[in-house]
Write a structure and sequence with these properties.
Blueprint lengths: L8 E3 L22 E9 L5 H9 L17 E6 L3 E7 L9 H16 L2 E7 L12 H10 L3 E6 L10 H8 L4 E6 L8 H9 L13 E6 H16 L9 E8 L6 E9 L2 H8 L4 H18 L3 E9 L7 H6 L6
Parallel strand pairs: 2-4, 2-5, 5-6, 6-7, 10-11
Antiparallel strand pairs: 1-8, 3-4, 9-10
Helix pairs in contact: 6-8
Length: 329
């Protein structure tokens, strides 16, 4: 039986860059090799997770049309023969209203503090309304860090290019950004330019992770995120924000399907009824979609069993946030 806990990290499905065992050996690392942490930050729903997936060339961060989907500081690793970039996808920056959001903002602060390079994302579709000016406080915060920063103007496929010129001029005037790069993360347009720009800012340093590791988060974590994504996509209004997912059992078998049992937590009985649905229809829909994606992610057949439980006001209780992995460091 292989790892029964689902706690092993996620590996790249392609061959490792340097050695067949995926480990860097002395003498194989170029003297000018670069390695460092890159924090992807911005307001909610500007496309940070979509950009991370595009830069890595595979999906490791869940994506939905709803803001505040990302709750954890998610680490994704891109390794080539000349650099290793360790991306930190972060929750959207906001004024916290309860303890969970406070801890999410602590994760943002930790990411900014750890970063060798900052990527600030703004939404090109906000150009006409000047809503992007709400990020002035964030720009001031970045100035205080002294960390090299690149501005990424995302979603340019949805606007006329002339519309973003005032935005570009305003941010250029701050003198904060080494480069300003318009992109469409959804279409992976501009990702090569981002990588070229940020690699120049990374310190010369040996790699920190084996070549075939794409994230230090466990398979168990990613399956819980897949289930949570399906809740976001299928449930409306407040339900997704009141929901957490815990994978309580993860058993890989040499023969047969991997058995995964997950618990979906909500805050009220009425929410539990909505997530389950009439005759269990909604839960079956969520489970079927999550199982398909989990199988694609794990490259193995999965038997996924889901249960819905009520944990009143879990978003405001430190002990439950600790259990769900939303811990302070």
């Amino acid at each position: 039986m292989t790892d029964p806990s689902g706690d092993k990290p996620v590996h790249d499905t392609d061959d490792p860059v340097f050695q067949p065992d995926g480990v860097f050996h002395p003498g194989t690392i170029p003297e000018d090799f670069r390695c460092g942490y890159v924090a992807i930050i911005g307001m909610p729903n500007v496309g940070k997770s979509t950009l991370l997936n595009a830069l890595l060339g595979q999906k490791i961060s869940i994506v939905t049309p709803k803001p505040q989907t990302t709750r954890h500081r998610l680490l994704g690793i891109l390794t080539t023969d000349s650099y290793q970039t360790i991306f930190l996808d972060t929750p959207g920056m906001l004024e916290p209203k309860y303890l969970l959001q406070e801890r999410m903002m602590e994760q943002v602060s930790l990411a900014i503090g750890d970063a060798d390079v900052l990527l600030l994302l703004v939404d090109a579709t906000k150009a006409a309304s000047n809503a992007w000016l709400e990020q002035d406080a964030m720009v001031a915060r970045l100035k205080e860090t002294g960390t090299p920063a690149i501005l990424i103007i995302n979603k340019i496929d949805r606007v006329q290019k002339l519309a973003i010129l005032p935005m570009i001029a305003s941010y250029a005037g701050t003198g904060l950004f080494t480069e300003i790069i318009p992109v469409s993360a959804l279409k992976r347009d501009g990702t090569a330019e981002i990588l070229s720009a940020l690699v120049k800012l990374l310190p010369r340093h040996p790699p920190l992770y084996p070549a075939d590791i794409v994230s230090e988060q466990s398979e168990r974590f990613f399956v819980s995120e897949i289930v949570r994504e399906k809740v976001f996509l299928n449930c409306k209004e407040e339900i997704p924000y009141s929901t957490a997912v815990d994978i309580v059992e993860f058993k890989e078998r040499e023969k047969g399907k991997t058995f995964i049992r997950g618990e979906i937590y909500v805050e009220r009985d009425s929410q539990r009824g909505i997530v389950i649905g009439r005759d269990g229809a909604m839960l079956k829909k969520i489970g079927a979609a999550a199982r398909r994606e989990a199988e694609s992610f794990l490259q193995h057949e999965v038997y996924l069993e889901l249960h819905v439980k009520v944990r009143e006001e879990w978003r405001r209780k430190g002990e439950w946030l600790d259990k769900m992995g939303y811990k302070t460091q």
